[in-house]
Design brief:
Helix content is 16%, strand content 47%. With 111 residues, the protein is an alpha+beta fold. The chain has a 6-stranded mixed β-sheet. Strands 1-6-7 form a 3-stranded mixed β-sheet.
Length: 111
């Protein structure tokens, strides 16, 4: 069975972002994998209020993440994390299916 995790840091940041928006109960972070980027695929993170029937919903500590079926296959076993360092803060995906990734961590290639 396919799985996708959300780290405690990512869950806290998503819950914080959502709580500051109007109608927070209807919002979720959509994680998608799109063709493109410097390695063939790239991650997209977008706050949305619409959920498609076939979307996978992952919840943790007040955070809601939606993933479409095609992206979910490419994210099997991966974990969404949130990094907050001196050089900046951003979401990142620790993806065991990625053979390589670019320096910024927003694009990857498959084996």
């Amino acid at each position: 069975m396919a799985s996708f995790g959300i780290s405690p840091a990512a869950a806290a940041r998503i819950a914080d972002i959502i709580s500051q928006k109007p109608n927070p109960e209807s919002l979720a972070l959509r994680v998608s994998v799109l063709a493109g980027g410097c390695n063939g695929f790239q991650y997209q993170f977008k706050l949305v209020s619409d959920r498609n029937e076939e979307d996978h919903l992952i919840e943790r500590e007040g955070a809601r993440v939606l993933i479409d079926p095609d992206s979910f296959e490419l994210l099997d076993g991966a974990e969404l994390d949130f990094i907050d360092k001196l050089m900046g803060a951003h979401f990142t995906v620790n993806n065991p299916n990625a053979a390589s990734a670019c320096g910024c961590g927003s694009s990857f290639s498959l084996v």
